[in-house]
Amino acid sequence: MPSQPSKLLETFANPYPQRDYTIRIRIPEFTCLCPKTGQPDFAEITLEYVADRLCVELKSLKNYIWSFRDQGAFHEAVTNQILDDLVAVTRPRFMRVSADFNVRGGIYTKVVVEHSLTEWRAAKPVSLP
Known about the structure:
By secondary structure, the protein is α+β, with helices and mostly antiparallel strands. The chain has helices at about 60-65, 75-90; strands spanning about 10-15, 20-35, 40-50, 55, 95-105, 105-115.
């Protein structure tokens, strides 16, 4: 049976919870509707996170992203909703959602939102020769 859009996000156990590592997911075909005109808005969503105990399962993420296709939403609202929904199910140490919307009326919009556990600290960058 083919997949269907769904707001249900599934998770699986982080295979290395003792280690901070970054998971980056690029979603180049995000679509929602402009709440004013009903016309489609297209964006590339980038999800970056440091998992704690849970990781997001990719097929459920695909179906979740698909569920916005017929939903009217301002760029700022939909980006924050995606972050809130993902944080609620994965409870990551850190998460960033970047939404880079295509041009509309000569204006590009990029919305970046973040969540971080108060006790979590990012590792210092390593510079190699």
